[in-house]
Amino acid sequence: MMGGRASLATRIVLVCVAVAGIAVLVAGLVMAGLARRSAQGVLQDSLSAQADVLASQLDERGLGSRAAGLGRTAEVVRGQGIVVVILLPRRGIQPTDQGSVEAATTAGLTQISSGQSISTTVAVDGKDYLVEARGVGPKSGFALVEPVRMVAGTQRILIRNILFALGAGLLVAALAGGLLGRLLARPLRRTADVAAAMRHGRRDLSVPVEGPAEVAEVAEAVNELSVALRHSEERQREFLLSVSHELRTPLTAVHGFAESLADGVVTGPEAQRAGQVIQQESQRLERLVSDLLDLARIGADQFRLDLTAVDLRETLSACAEVWRVRCERRSVQLRLELPPDPAIATTDPRRIRQVLDGLAENALRVTPAGSQLTLSLGQAGPQTAALQVRDGGPGLDPEDYAIAFERGVLHEKYRGRRPVGSGIGLALAYGLVSRLGGTITAGPAPEGGAAFTVMLPATWR
């Protein structure tokens, strides 16, 4: 037992013993009833045969003359535990033991007619009697009466046999339950050992898939969990490595230029340029750290949203003004597509701008000079607005659009093939949009690259 709970093997043994005990008791009760009725039937048939033999020796006129002979016969059968009760004309029932007389009377001996036979079981003072009566003349006849005592003896033997069978059945059930419990518990215990090892950091273990279907399913689930944890931890390590690289690059620039300024190596106009680089890289660091903190907090209840009515046209226009300048520096054409009517959404304007800026930064990073970056707002439904950021870059592989928002996946795949960010921007955008009650999807863009679409509840005016 562990933690005060019975083990599986113990429970199986108890269940098997309980089932075996109930089965033996039910079978014993059924057998006792059948044996009682069967034994009583045999005794009744034997008593009937003896009554028929006695009746064949008597005739309607001879019962009185043969009463003495019948009395001697009564003495013979009395040795077998049978009492003969005689009914004579005008004399009535001849006296014998009271119980037998009452049994014969209750069975109807006093009303028997010539040639009639009575075969029944009657109870007198809580005791059962077998009665076989025969009519041999007008108001004359006899009855063989036997107490049902042999059945009770048979029942005692049967009860003793039932108790023996019950003990044997319980013993066999306990042994079978113990064997079955060990067979079932062995793979489960092995699975528990592997799970405990996984809890302590082991990821190179697997559980043999064996045993009944349900036990095998548990083993398969643990193996799948082990694989999923291994992949998740690998992705976390890769993500941390990529973030470390992103942090190290601006830190190196800041450290180098600051050291040059401190040592007086850089002076005059070059010092001003060094200060600008330090400022830009520190802003980059601040933005990266802020994104990391937001990504860590986004699932928490205390993550703050300042909801207000926002005109998405104005938000997208303000975003375009900032990115137009940056696009011109990269010789990229910025296209702004706005609807004629305002789209009012109850949302957090700062978080929406954060999402748009992150998507635009990713898009500009991969868009070559001479291509186009598009910011678009459209009506996706009567109560839905669609914000899009589309680029003219190389796009993604078709299978990557479904996993684009998983943290660090695209960074790991496309690193070395094209400019990539830290791997947290799309994951952060997905989390922010979800907290704002919207959805974000990725797909191919008509400009040739990738299109990221943010759907938000909005009212069109």
UniProtKB/TrEMBL annotation:
Its EC number is 2.7.13.3. Pfam families: HAMP (PF00672), HATPase_c (PF02518), HisKA (PF00512). It catalyses: ATP + protein L-histidine = ADP + protein N-phospho-L-histidine. Residues 242-460 form the Histidine kinase domain. PROSITE patterns: HAMP, HIS_KIN. Its cofactor is Mg(2+); Mn(2+). The chain crosses the membrane at residues 12-35, 157-180. GO terms for molecular function: ATP binding; phosphoprotein phosphatase activity; phosphorelay sensor kinase activity. This is Signal transduction histidine-protein kinase/phosphatase MprB. It comes from Kribbella antiqua.
